[in-house]
Each structure stands twice: as C-alpha cells, then as structure tokens.
Amino acid sequence: MTNETIVTAAMLAIGDELLSGRTKDKNIGHLADMLTLSGIDLKEVRIVGDEENAIVEALNALRTKYDYIFTSGGIGPTHDDITADAVSAAFGVPCEYDADAMNLLGEMYARRGLEFTEARKRMARMPKGARHIPNPVSTAPGFVIGNVHVMAGVPQVFQAMVDAVIPTLRTGTRVLSLGISCPYGEGDIGTPLAAIQKAHPETSIGSYPRYIGQAFSTEIVVRGRSQDAVDAAGDDVRAMIESIRQSKEVAENRSAEA
Amino acid sequence: MTNETIVTAAMLAIGDELLSGRTKDKNIGHLADMLTLSGIDLKEVRIVGDEENAIVEALNALRTKYDYIFTSGGIGPTHDDITADAVSAAFGVPCEYDADAMNLLGEMYARRGLEFTEARKRMARMPKGARHIPNPVSTAPGFVIGNVHVMAGVPQVFQAMVDAVIPTLRTGTRVLSLGISCPYGEGDIGTPLAAIQKAHPETSIGSYPRYIGQAFSTEIVVRGRSQDAVDAAGDDVRAMIESIRQSKEVAENRSAEA
C-alpha cells in the first residue's frame, strides 16, 4: 500500500441515440482500457440524453467527485449538439466562438472548397477559457475546461482525442492485472475464492462467469498495484483450481467404484 | 401531444470489470432496444463498481427520479457479488436467504448431482419482501423490490430476465422512429435541419454522423409519439436533402462552365 498514487476519473457519455438503442456505445470500453493502461481508475460512468439540465447536473456531480472527467458526444454542428452550451452552463461561463477554432475550421473548409456555414461555425463554440483538444481526424477540436475533457462521440474521433489527452494527465500507480482461466463455475469456487480474497487484501479479485453451452466456467482476475501481491494471490488461485480438480477426480472415482 | 403517456426508466450496470475495460458491456444497448420497443423512455444509465456505497448512492438517486430502475450484475455466488446486500441497504431492509429461492436452487443442484455450497446459497439472498424474476437459463433468480429490477450481468441471463420483466411493466406511448440516410455531412445539413426541428416541435430530430473513408455522411432520425408528426417532419427532411443535392449540382455546373 506504500507509495501508491490513486488518480480517479469518470466518464459522461452524451446522446439520445445511446439511450434509444440506436447506437451501441463503443467509447466507454475504449476509455476504460486506455485509463487502466495509464494508471487512472475509472470509477463511474453516466449516460444522459441531449438535454442541457441532465448534462449540467451529471457533470457537476462528477467533476467535484473525481480527478478527471471525460465526455463523449454532442460537439457536432447540428441543433442537437448542445454539449458546449451545457458545459459552459455547468462552469458558469459564457459559451463563445473560439478565435483559434474559427481560424482552424475556416482554413480547413476553405482548403476543401466548402462553405463555412453557420452550422459548421457551431463547432468552434466552447466555454470561455477552454483549451483545445486537437482532432487529427476531422479538425473540429474538443476542449478542456477545469478537469473536464470534452470529446467527440464518433469513435474514430473520440479515440484520436483520447490519444491526445492521455499524455497530458497526471497518472497514478498502474493497476496490474492477472487473468486465470478456471474451468469451474462460481458455485464451485465461491467459498475458497472469498478466503483467498480475505488473505490478500492488497488485491481485488474478481470472477467473471462465462456461460457456454450448458455450463458455466469462470475467468478469475487478480488486480492490484503491487506485482508481488498480485503474484501471491495468483499462486493461491491456481492452487485452489488444482485442489478442486483433485476433489472432483476423487468424487468421480468413487461414483465409478460404486 | 394529447393522450400521451410517458414512462421513464434508468439502468445501473454494476461491476469493476466494466470500469477496468475487461468486459465491454452488452446489456445497456440491449435494454435500450427493448425499452424503446415497449414504449418506456430510458433516460439515464450509470455504471459503478462492486462497492456497496457507490451502488447504494446511485440506486437511491435513480429510484426516486424515474418510474423503473433496472440493474445488471453482482448477483452471482462469489465474494464480489454484493448487489443483493447493496439493494437491501438502499431500501433499508434486511438481506435474507429467500425460502423459495433456496428450494429452487437446492432442487436444481440435487438434480445435477452438485453440492449446494455456501457460495451457491448466496444466490438465494435478496432483500426481505422482494419478488423473483425467473431465470430460465441458470435458475438463480433475479428480484424486484419497489421499482427496482435486479438482474444478472451475464448477457444470456440478463436478456432472459428482461424478457420476463417487460410484460409486467406499465408502458407508455411508443416512440416511433424514422431513419433517413443522408449523403451529406452535418456541416451541410445543420442549419436547415435546425429549422425543420423548430417547425416540428412534436418530434425530436437527431443526426448521427458517420465517418467513412475521408468524408462524413449522416443518418437523420426523426422520433415522436405521433405518426403524422413523424411523417410530416420526415417529408421536410427528404425535401431538404433534395434541395442540397440540387444546389450542389448547380455549383458543380457553374465551376464546370468557368
């Protein structure tokens, strides 16, 4: 437990389409992977629709509770893209056309021979004082204000923005993870696994059932910030699996003899 | 707007594995689809880890705000399955071994020649006064207490439980949805689409960018509870696309003549 640094995060995914089922979110899992690799603990995710009050309320609840907040969605050029307004409202600052973003977008559309429409100009709006998150895919930037990182909902753009943001973050001690495949269901392993968890309080041991055909098997995952602690718990998990295997063998031999 | 019934819902997905990225959630999108088909509006989703305080806090915030709450995860037999305890704590009732669930599980394991271990007995625990949600896949029931429906995290089991729960719910006026594929990006359609939204306040018009190759196209989705209103807005959207096509054709002819 010594010298550990914990950095926490939450994500707010924004969009009616996620709640109607039209779009199956791909950004939550990606951000979770990237934060875990970086040593930042994702503690909570919320999904809300394109409603200013809902966004403001969720954002204000999260940004006071966790070190970093990441949002996805609602920063495009159409009327239902209201994230910049909502984030401005949450921080109590005006939502303005950012001069640098206007230049970036104006030049890009000029280069492509496209009109810089009112709708496209909407993508330059952000809370006063926000910094850009670069968008190498389609130019229109995301932005950072306070501890809130506002990114696009289109997965290719979201992922590029996450790549740009991660190196700017303070990170904690990475959580190491050891996965052990277990051929037995949770009903077989539940009691001994609870004892192993108790014996290894520096680790967090999860078991994830898989239901294939007619039987459950499990993946057991040992997580912790100390390699020694994870390895020690992992050894006990492997010994548990071997012990269950032996006792099942004995039981089978007995019923064969009977 | 007449004679419309609005029924709202929220989902709470529970599990460290969703926040670490190990498991990519499949249940949120499925529930969203099923509720939309049933005329229930999913308004908010939260994901929290296997921590009692986090579960209790989220559940109490959601259950007072929406008509129905659906949870996934944390009702298995291992030490990290704490949803039954957390839901009991949220409702201020004891978490007990349910007699009917003990019978169901005891008979099932006896039939399969398996020991009814302490771990497996954990799956019979639920808040005092809860009703079962049947589990045709692997027997261990979910449960309902108040407006909270507690279901398994394994997608096959979650989906079977959703199928069992949906017919028991009060449903609202279904939201009808009309999808229109649009070859132009949001920068082209943003301004006219905002005008169409304004002219059709009974509908909610969303536009969902797709980034394929080097260009954006859009799917425009008109949603509303009145077929006439959805159709009228859809007609205007189609006319808008045709008008953009014509003006682009004129622009191309001009530059060809120049």
UniProtKB/TrEMBL annotation, chains A, B:
Cite the SMART domains for this sequence. MoCF_biosynth (SM00852)
InterPro entries (UniProt xref): CinA (IPR050101), FLAD1_M (IPR056596), MoaB/Mog-like_dom_sf (IPR036425), MoaB/Mog_dom (IPR001453)
Q: What range(s) does the MoaB/Mog domain occupy?
A: 10-172
Q: Which Pfam families match?
A: FLAD1_M, MoCF_biosynth
- Per its UniProt record, what Gene3D superfamilies does this chain match? MoaB/Mog-like domain
Q: What name does this protein carry?
A: Molybdenum cofactor biosynthesis protein
Species this protein is from: Rhizobium altiplani
